Protein backbone atom coordinates (compact mmCIF):
# COMPACT_ATOMS: atom_id res chain seq x y z
CA UNK A 1 0.00 0.00 0.00
CA UNK A 2 1.41 3.44 -0.91
CA UNK A 3 2.33 5.66 2.01
CA UNK A 4 -0.29 8.14 3.16
CA UNK A 5 0.84 11.75 2.98
CA UNK A 6 -0.91 14.31 5.17
CA UNK A 7 -0.42 18.01 4.51
CA UNK A 8 -1.91 21.24 5.82
CA UNK A 9 -3.51 23.41 3.18
CA UNK A 10 -6.25 25.92 2.48
CA UNK A 11 -9.43 24.64 0.87
CA UNK A 12 -12.72 26.32 0.04
CA UNK A 13 -11.69 29.44 1.92
CA UNK A 14 -10.82 27.57 5.13
CA UNK A 15 -7.12 28.02 5.96
CA UNK A 16 -6.76 25.02 8.28
CA UNK A 17 -7.56 21.94 6.21
CA UNK A 18 -5.72 18.65 5.89
CA UNK A 19 -5.26 16.56 2.76
CA UNK A 20 -4.71 12.81 3.05
CA UNK A 21 -3.52 11.18 -0.15
CA UNK A 22 -1.76 8.06 -1.37
CA UNK A 23 -1.32 9.49 -4.85
CA UNK A 24 -4.43 7.77 -6.19
CA UNK A 25 -7.22 9.23 -4.04
CA UNK A 26 -7.46 12.12 -1.62
CA UNK A 27 -9.57 13.14 1.34
CA UNK A 28 -9.74 16.71 2.61
CA UNK A 29 -10.98 17.56 6.08
CA UNK A 30 -11.25 20.95 7.73
CA UNK A 31 -10.48 21.87 11.31
CA UNK A 32 -12.08 25.32 11.00
CA UNK A 33 -15.56 23.85 11.51
CA UNK A 34 -16.99 20.43 12.11
CA UNK A 35 -15.93 17.73 12.40
CA UNK A 36 -16.41 17.54 8.62
CA UNK A 37 -14.88 15.67 5.70
CA UNK A 38 -15.38 18.08 2.83
CA UNK A 39 -13.84 16.19 -0.10
CA UNK A 40 -13.26 12.64 -1.33
CA UNK A 41 -12.17 11.91 -4.86
CA UNK A 42 -9.45 10.72 -7.14
CA UNK A 43 -6.35 12.89 -6.84
CA UNK A 44 -6.92 15.92 -9.04
CA UNK A 45 -10.42 14.71 -9.94
CA UNK A 46 -13.90 15.78 -8.95
CA UNK A 47 -15.36 15.70 -5.46
CA UNK A 48 -17.96 12.95 -5.14
CA UNK A 49 -19.45 14.92 -2.22
CA UNK A 50 -21.60 17.98 -2.80
CA UNK A 51 -20.22 21.38 -1.84
CA UNK A 52 -22.26 24.53 -1.25
CA UNK A 53 -19.84 27.27 -2.35
CA UNK A 54 -21.57 30.11 -0.49
CA UNK A 55 -21.20 28.13 2.77
CA UNK A 56 -17.55 27.12 2.33
CA UNK A 57 -14.91 29.13 4.14
CA UNK A 58 -17.45 30.42 6.63
CA UNK A 59 -17.72 29.78 10.36
CA UNK A 60 -19.31 31.08 13.54
CA UNK A 61 -22.90 31.10 12.29
CA UNK A 62 -25.66 31.10 14.91
CA UNK A 63 -27.62 28.46 12.97
CA UNK A 64 -26.77 24.98 11.70
CA UNK A 65 -25.16 25.09 8.24
CA UNK A 66 -25.23 22.19 5.77
CA UNK A 67 -21.99 22.94 3.83
CA UNK A 68 -21.87 19.49 2.13
CA UNK A 69 -19.31 16.71 2.52
CA UNK A 70 -19.57 14.04 5.23
CA UNK A 71 -20.63 14.58 8.84
CA UNK A 72 -21.48 12.76 12.06
CA UNK A 73 -24.89 13.18 13.66
CA UNK A 74 -26.76 11.47 16.48
CA UNK A 75 -29.97 9.62 15.60
CA UNK A 76 -32.91 9.77 15.91
CA UNK A 77 -33.44 13.14 14.23
CA UNK A 78 -35.01 15.62 16.63
CA UNK A 79 -35.05 19.39 16.88
CA UNK A 80 -33.03 21.04 18.33
CA UNK A 81 -30.56 18.33 19.42
CA UNK A 82 -29.75 16.92 15.99
CA UNK A 83 -28.99 20.38 14.68
CA UNK A 84 -26.50 21.29 17.41
CA UNK A 85 -24.08 23.77 15.90
CA UNK A 86 -20.82 22.54 14.40
CA UNK A 87 -19.69 25.92 13.11
CA UNK A 88 -16.58 26.33 15.24
CA UNK A 89 -13.02 25.01 15.13
CA UNK A 90 -12.16 21.45 16.09
CA UNK A 91 -8.97 19.89 17.42
CA UNK A 92 -6.98 18.02 14.75
CA UNK A 93 -4.54 15.27 15.73
CA UNK A 94 -2.30 13.63 13.13
CA UNK A 95 -0.77 10.29 14.12
CA UNK A 96 0.31 7.12 12.29
CA UNK A 97 -1.26 8.11 8.98
CA UNK A 98 -4.58 9.02 10.59
CA UNK A 99 -6.22 12.32 11.38
CA UNK A 100 -8.75 12.74 14.18
CA UNK A 101 -11.10 15.72 14.39
CA UNK A 102 -12.55 16.36 17.86
CA UNK A 103 -15.14 19.05 18.45
CA UNK A 104 -15.67 20.81 21.78
CA UNK A 105 -18.54 19.48 23.89
CA UNK A 106 -21.81 20.68 22.40
CA UNK A 107 -23.46 23.06 24.89
CA UNK A 108 -26.87 22.14 23.46
CA UNK A 109 -26.55 18.39 24.11
CA UNK A 110 -23.53 17.64 26.28
CA UNK A 111 -22.23 15.40 23.48
CA UNK A 112 -18.78 15.48 21.90
CA UNK A 113 -18.34 14.16 18.35
CA UNK A 114 -15.17 12.90 16.71
CA UNK A 115 -14.20 11.67 13.24
CA UNK A 116 -11.04 9.67 12.62
CA UNK A 117 -9.98 9.23 8.99
CA UNK A 118 -7.36 6.97 7.45
CA UNK A 119 -6.58 5.66 3.99
CA UNK A 120 -6.48 1.88 3.64
CA UNK A 121 -5.39 -0.60 0.98
CA UNK A 122 -8.98 -0.75 -0.29
CA UNK A 123 -9.98 2.90 0.14
CA UNK A 124 -10.62 4.65 3.43
CA UNK A 125 -11.89 3.96 6.93
CA UNK A 126 -13.92 6.55 8.84
CA UNK A 127 -14.56 6.02 12.54
CA UNK A 128 -17.41 7.98 14.09
CA UNK A 129 -17.42 8.44 17.86
CA UNK A 130 -19.88 10.20 20.16
CA UNK A 131 -18.98 10.78 23.81
CA UNK A 132 -21.60 11.60 26.40
CA UNK A 133 -19.86 14.38 28.34
CA UNK A 134 -23.06 15.42 30.07
CA UNK A 135 -24.63 14.37 33.35
CA UNK A 136 -27.61 12.43 32.01
CA UNK A 137 -27.91 9.19 30.06
CA UNK A 138 -28.68 9.85 26.38
CA UNK A 139 -30.40 7.40 24.04
CA UNK A 140 -28.79 7.77 20.61
CA UNK A 141 -27.10 6.09 17.68
CA UNK A 142 -24.03 7.31 15.77
CA UNK A 143 -25.22 8.43 12.35
CA UNK A 144 -22.82 8.77 9.39
CA UNK A 145 -24.14 11.07 6.66
CA UNK A 146 -22.51 11.46 3.22
CA UNK A 147 -23.94 14.21 1.00
CA UNK A 148 -23.30 13.23 -2.58
CA UNK A 149 -22.85 15.58 -5.54
CA UNK A 150 -25.91 16.01 -7.79
CA UNK A 151 -26.56 14.02 -10.94
CA UNK A 152 -25.91 10.49 -9.72
CA UNK A 153 -27.71 7.31 -8.72
CA UNK A 154 -27.90 5.97 -5.17
CA UNK A 155 -27.87 2.18 -4.83
CA UNK A 156 -28.49 0.07 -1.73
CA UNK A 157 -28.66 -3.68 -1.37
CA UNK A 158 -31.33 -5.71 0.38
CA UNK A 159 -30.38 -8.66 2.59
CA UNK A 160 -30.17 -12.02 0.76
CA UNK A 161 -33.42 -12.99 -0.94
CA UNK A 162 -35.13 -16.36 -0.57
CA UNK A 163 -38.19 -18.33 -1.61
CA UNK A 164 -41.59 -18.45 0.08
CA UNK A 165 -41.37 -22.12 1.03
CA UNK A 166 -38.13 -21.60 2.98
CA UNK A 167 -38.62 -18.05 4.35
CA UNK A 168 -41.95 -17.81 6.12
CA UNK A 169 -40.89 -15.03 8.48
CA UNK A 170 -40.01 -11.43 7.47
CA UNK A 171 -36.31 -10.76 7.07
CA UNK A 172 -35.92 -6.98 7.13
CA UNK A 173 -37.86 -3.71 7.40
CA UNK A 174 -38.35 -1.17 4.62
CA UNK A 175 -38.97 2.13 6.40
CA UNK A 176 -41.02 5.08 5.16
CA UNK A 177 -41.30 8.70 6.29
CA UNK A 178 -44.52 10.71 5.99
CA UNK A 179 -43.21 12.35 2.82
CA UNK A 180 -41.99 9.11 1.22
CA UNK A 181 -43.78 8.50 -2.06
CA UNK A 182 -42.74 5.32 -3.81
CA UNK A 183 -44.72 6.43 -6.87
CA UNK A 184 -42.07 9.12 -7.40
CA UNK A 185 -40.22 8.35 -10.63
CA UNK A 186 -36.82 8.69 -8.92
CA UNK A 187 -37.36 5.38 -7.08
CA UNK A 188 -36.59 2.03 -8.66
CA UNK A 189 -36.87 -1.33 -6.92
CA UNK A 190 -35.50 -4.64 -8.08
CA UNK A 191 -35.27 -7.96 -6.30
CA UNK A 192 -31.85 -7.18 -4.76
CA UNK A 193 -31.55 -3.39 -4.95
CA UNK A 194 -33.14 -0.17 -3.83
CA UNK A 195 -32.27 2.62 -6.28
CA UNK A 196 -32.86 6.36 -5.97
CA UNK A 197 -31.87 8.85 -8.65
CA UNK A 198 -30.82 12.43 -7.94
CA UNK A 199 -32.54 14.83 -10.37
CA UNK A 200 -31.95 18.55 -9.93
CA UNK A 201 -35.29 19.25 -11.64
CA UNK A 202 -37.12 17.46 -8.82
CA UNK A 203 -36.95 19.49 -5.62
CA UNK A 204 -39.27 17.45 -3.40
CA UNK A 205 -37.53 15.28 -0.78
CA UNK A 206 -37.72 11.51 -0.64
CA UNK A 207 -36.39 9.14 2.01
CA UNK A 208 -36.40 5.46 2.91
CA UNK A 209 -34.59 3.19 5.33
CA UNK A 210 -33.81 -0.50 5.63
CA UNK A 211 -31.86 -2.98 7.73
CA UNK A 212 -29.10 -5.14 6.32
CA UNK A 213 -26.47 -6.86 8.52
CA UNK A 214 -23.98 -6.28 5.71
CA UNK A 215 -24.96 -2.70 4.96
CA UNK A 216 -23.74 -1.75 1.48
CA UNK A 217 -24.53 1.42 -0.43
CA UNK A 218 -23.11 3.07 -3.53
CA UNK A 219 -23.40 6.23 -5.57
CA UNK A 220 -22.69 6.24 -9.29
CA UNK A 221 -21.65 9.68 -10.53
CA UNK A 222 -20.74 9.58 -14.20
CA UNK A 223 -18.35 6.63 -14.39
CA UNK A 224 -17.14 6.95 -10.79
CA UNK A 225 -18.63 4.73 -8.10
CA UNK A 226 -18.43 5.60 -4.39
CA UNK A 227 -19.13 2.72 -2.01
CA UNK A 228 -19.63 2.74 1.75
CA UNK A 229 -19.88 -0.39 3.89
CA UNK A 230 -20.75 -0.99 7.52
CA UNK A 231 -21.73 -3.96 9.67
CA UNK A 232 -25.02 -4.06 11.60
CA UNK A 233 -26.10 -6.30 14.48
CA UNK A 234 -29.42 -8.09 13.92
CA UNK A 235 -30.33 -8.67 17.58
CA UNK A 236 -29.92 -5.15 18.99
CA UNK A 237 -32.15 -2.08 18.62
CA UNK A 238 -31.68 0.49 15.85
CA UNK A 239 -33.29 3.89 15.44
CA UNK A 240 -36.11 4.61 13.00
CA UNK A 241 -37.82 1.20 12.95
CA UNK A 242 -34.55 -0.75 12.83
CA UNK A 243 -32.76 1.20 10.11
CA UNK A 244 -29.08 0.44 9.59
CA UNK A 245 -29.20 2.44 6.34
CA UNK A 246 -31.13 5.45 5.09
CA UNK A 247 -31.18 7.23 1.76
CA UNK A 248 -32.44 10.77 1.18
CA UNK A 249 -32.72 12.95 -1.90
CA UNK A 250 -33.86 16.42 -2.93
CA UNK A 251 -33.03 18.71 -5.83
CA UNK A 252 -29.57 19.60 -4.53
CA UNK A 253 -27.97 16.35 -3.37
CA UNK A 254 -28.45 12.73 -2.34
CA UNK A 255 -27.47 11.36 1.06
CA UNK A 256 -26.16 7.89 1.85
CA UNK A 257 -26.52 7.33 5.60
CA UNK A 258 -25.52 4.44 7.85
CA UNK A 259 -26.35 4.08 11.54
CA UNK A 260 -24.87 2.27 14.49
CA UNK A 261 -27.00 0.56 17.14
CA UNK A 262 -29.29 2.60 19.38
CA UNK A 263 -27.77 2.71 22.88
CA UNK A 264 -28.47 4.22 26.27
CA UNK A 265 -25.23 6.14 26.53
CA UNK A 266 -24.18 6.70 30.12
CA UNK A 267 -22.24 9.81 31.15
CA UNK A 268 -18.56 9.35 30.38
CA UNK A 269 -19.15 6.60 27.83
CA UNK A 270 -18.92 6.72 24.03
CA UNK A 271 -20.50 4.98 21.05
CA UNK A 272 -18.52 4.16 17.90
CA UNK A 273 -19.56 3.40 14.33
CA UNK A 274 -17.19 2.50 11.47
CA UNK A 275 -17.62 2.91 7.73
CA UNK A 276 -15.27 1.62 5.02
CA UNK A 277 -15.19 3.59 1.78
CA UNK A 278 -13.89 2.83 -1.68
CA UNK A 279 -13.83 4.67 -4.98
CA UNK A 280 -13.84 3.13 -8.45
CA UNK A 281 -13.60 4.67 -11.91
CA UNK A 282 -14.59 3.39 -15.34
CA UNK A 283 -17.88 2.04 -13.97
CA UNK A 284 -20.55 2.17 -16.67
CA UNK A 285 -24.06 0.73 -16.77
CA UNK A 286 -25.78 -0.01 -20.06
CA UNK A 287 -29.08 0.31 -18.19
CA UNK A 288 -30.26 0.60 -14.59
CA UNK A 289 -31.46 -2.98 -14.27
CA UNK A 290 -30.87 -5.85 -11.87
CA UNK A 291 -28.82 -7.68 -14.46
CA UNK A 292 -26.55 -4.69 -15.10
CA UNK A 293 -26.13 -3.97 -11.40
CA UNK A 294 -25.25 -7.62 -10.81
CA UNK A 295 -22.70 -7.49 -13.62
CA UNK A 296 -21.07 -4.13 -12.85
CA UNK A 297 -21.74 -3.03 -9.26
CA UNK A 298 -22.26 -6.21 -7.25
CA UNK A 299 -18.65 -7.49 -7.63
CA UNK A 300 -17.38 -4.14 -6.26
CA UNK A 301 -19.66 -4.11 -3.21
CA UNK A 302 -17.77 -6.88 -1.47
In short:
The chain has helices spanning 239-242, 290-296, 298-301, and strands at 5-11, 14-21, 25-30, 36-42, 69-75, 91-95, 98-102, 111-119, 124-132, 138-148, 153-157, 174-176, 187-189, 193-197, 206-210, 214-221, 224-231, 245-249, 254-259, 263-265, 270-281.
Strand content: over 45%
Sheet with most strands? 11 strands, antiparallel
Number of helices: 3
Radius of gyration: 19 Å
Mean pLDDT: 97
Shape summary: globular
Q: What's the helical proportion of residues?
A: under 10%
Element pattern in H and E: EEEEEEEEEEEEEEEEEHEEEEHH
List how many beta strands DSSP finds.
21
Enumerate the spans where pLDDT stays under 50 for 5 or more consecutive residues.
none
Q: Kindly, what is the distance between the CA atoms of the first and last residues, rounded to a whole number of angstroms?
A: 19 Å
| Class of secondary structure makeup | mainly beta
Detail the topology: elements first, then pairings.
Layout: E1 5-11, E2 14-21, E3 25-30, E4 36-42, E5 69-75, E6 91-95, E7 98-102, E8 111-119, E9 124-132, E10 138-148, E11 153-157, E12 174-176, E13 187-189, E14 193-197, E15 206-210, E16 214-221, E17 224-231, H1 239-242, E18 245-249, E19 254-259, E20 263-265, E21 270-281, H2 290-296, H3 298-301
Antiparallel strand pairs: 1-2, 2-3, 3-4, 4-5, 5-10, 6-7, 7-8, 8-9, 9-21, 10-19, 10-20, 11-14, 11-16, 12-15, 13-14, 15-18, 16-17, 17-21, 18-19
Amino acid sequence: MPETKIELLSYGGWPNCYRLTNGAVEIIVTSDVGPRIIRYGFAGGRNVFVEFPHQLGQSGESWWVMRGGHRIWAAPEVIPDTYALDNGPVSATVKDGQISLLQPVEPETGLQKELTVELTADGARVTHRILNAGEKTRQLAPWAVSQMAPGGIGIATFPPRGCHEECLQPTNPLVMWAYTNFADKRWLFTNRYLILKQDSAEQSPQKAGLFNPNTRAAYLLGDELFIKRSQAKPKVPYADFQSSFQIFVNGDFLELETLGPLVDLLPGFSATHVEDWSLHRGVELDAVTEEELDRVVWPLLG
